[in-house]
């Protein structure tokens, strides 16, 4: 059972200069690995939704200010650059996607286990350290899972694929506040903190089981050579340019920083907003309202993915991000159900922005794909910067007035949406992949790519092993 060949197939190291069949996986062939990786999206959606609920919970049980409670977001999202540009990026480029999945799950489980004694000690600083470890784990998972979902399968469906997978992230953000409303609020402080401990113990057990599953399964590995092949097939991008000249990538990363910071800030202070602006709303009810808002977020991702079947993803992105700006602005002055409903609509339109920036930003990177994905994930660091700014404004004025902070960051992120729609240098690269036919039909159809090299002819190619490819 555990033969040498069995262990060899589960090796965590894959040569990046090797072209594999993953460069042209069909829809059918990519289905199983995508389903497995999609589970990870639910995991960090759940963790993120739990964090938003804990933000308000710790304000009450540990008696801390709004600005200080944002330390949770700062620790969580502050870990992302360390992972996406540091240890996870190193493992991804030196080993494989599967190795990063296992590493990320290990760190996630470790942080969850260490959180238990910190909660018992009622140490907010200690819990922030644990959240930092969890953030490193989830940052590692995002460093691998987002690009994997984007590149595993036909390129023309990349935005649809990542938005559909990210919709399960949205489902996780719905489940967490609902759970929080029942196990964190409505109890005395000590019992509520005990409930938090049980939640993190369950998380640790689940993610370690999942890590074993990822070790046992066989995932098709997508190498830099595969992505260079895709870029050449679509005749798009500046893959032959050095990394420092991938200016579209850096613009996308900055947009990701601004957008993600705004999104995290709104969700992090959603409960504060509704309890302050809506009469007869306590924290438990506010958590349920947050779950409803995250539900519209999840619906928005499914809806956005469906719309992208008929409308170019870059156009859908521009429409949705513009709507975020339009609908978050009234929350500054409106109160009661009107203000809350504006946040609901804002979360609906936020839905597709993060994954679509991710997919569009990776267009045409070729051999720089893995390194570039780390920069895009590092943009999540905005979630560590913007919430404390919003918390400071909320402490000085109120939460409604602090909505001016995410509004400003949405406006800056909007520059990338404008560029991919109206600047030919951006637009043409995006469209080249959207119209590509690589991997659209299964190999059983007998249709193969013009670039496919017969495996027998490829044996002599230095440093490459080309597997069977086709559409």
Automatic annotation (TrEMBL):
Keywords in alphabetical order: Cell membrane, Membrane, Transmembrane, Transmembrane helix
A Pfam cross-reference name: MFS_1
Annotated localization: Cell inner membrane
Molecular function terms, GO-annotated: transmembrane transporter activity
Coarse class of the protein's main subcellular location: membrane
Membrane spanning stretches: 31-51, 71-92, 99-117, 123-141, 162-185, 197-217, 249-271, 283-304, 316-333, 339-362, 374-394, 400-419
Membrane topology summary: Multi-pass membrane protein
UniProt entry tagged with the keyword Transmembrane helix: yes
Membrane recorded as keyword: yes
Domain of life: Eukaryota
The protein's name: MFS general substrate transporter
Organism expressing this protein natively: Neurospora tetrasperma (strain FGSC 2508 / ATCC MYA-4615 / P0657)
């Amino acid at each position: 059972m555990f033969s040498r060949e069995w262990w060899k197939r589960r090796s965590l190291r894959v040569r990046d200069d090797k072209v594999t069949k993953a460069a042209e996986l069909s829809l059918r062939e990519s289905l199983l690995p995508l389903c497995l990786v999609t589970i990870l999206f639910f995991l960090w959606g759940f963790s993120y939704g739990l964090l938003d609920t804990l933000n308000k919970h710790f304000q009450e049980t540990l008696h801390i200010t709004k600005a200080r409670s944002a330390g949770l977001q700062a620790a969580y999202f502050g870990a992302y650059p360390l992972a996406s540009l540091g240890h996870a990026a190193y493992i991804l480029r030196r080993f494989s996607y599967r190795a990063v999945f296992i590493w990320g799950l290990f760190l996630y489980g470790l942080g969850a286990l260490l959180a238990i004694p910190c909660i018992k000690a009622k140490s907010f600083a200690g819990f922030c350290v644990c959240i930092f470890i969890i953030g490193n784990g989830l940052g590692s998972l995002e460093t691998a899972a987002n690009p994997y979902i984007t590149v595993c399968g036909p390129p023309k469906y990349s935005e649809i694929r990542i938005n559909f997978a990210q919709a399960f992230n949205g489902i996780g953000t719905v489940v967490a506040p609902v759970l929080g409303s029942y196990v964190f609020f409505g109890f005395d402080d000590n019992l509520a903190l005990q409930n938090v401990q049980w939640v993190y113990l369950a998380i640790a057990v689940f993610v370690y089981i999942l890590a074993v599953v990822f070790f046992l399964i066989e995932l098709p590995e997508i190498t830099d050579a595969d992505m260079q092949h895709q870029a050449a097939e679509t005749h798009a991008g500046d893959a032959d340019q050095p990394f420092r000249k991938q200016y579209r990538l850096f613009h996308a990363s900055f947009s990701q920083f601004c957008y993600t910071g705004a999104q995290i800030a709104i969700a992090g202070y959603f409960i504060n907003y509704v309890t302050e602006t809506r009469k007869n709303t306590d924290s438990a009810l506010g958590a349920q309202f947050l779950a409803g808002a995250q539900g519209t977020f999840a619906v928005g991702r499914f809806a956005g993915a469906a719309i992208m079947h008929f409308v170019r993803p870059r156009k859908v992105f521009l429409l949705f991000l513009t709507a975020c700006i339009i609908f978050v602005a009234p929350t500054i002055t409106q109160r009661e159900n009107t203000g809350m409903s504006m946040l609901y609509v804002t979360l609906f339109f936020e839905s597709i922005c993060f994954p679509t920036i991710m997919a569009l930003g990776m267009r045409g990177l070729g051999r720089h794909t893995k390194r570039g994905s780390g920069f895009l994930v590092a943009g999540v660091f905005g979630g560590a910067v913007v919430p404390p700014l919003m918390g400071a404004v909320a402490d000085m004025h109120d939460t409604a007035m602090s909505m001016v902070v995410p509004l400003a960051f949405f406006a800056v992120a909007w520059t990338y949406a404008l560029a991919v729609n109206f600047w030919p240098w951006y637009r043409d690269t995006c469209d080249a992949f959207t119209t590509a036919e690589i991997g659209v039909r299964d190999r059983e159809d007998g249709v193969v790519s013009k670039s496919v090299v017969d495996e027998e002819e490829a044996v002599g190619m230095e440093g490459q092993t080309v597997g069977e490819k086709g559409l």
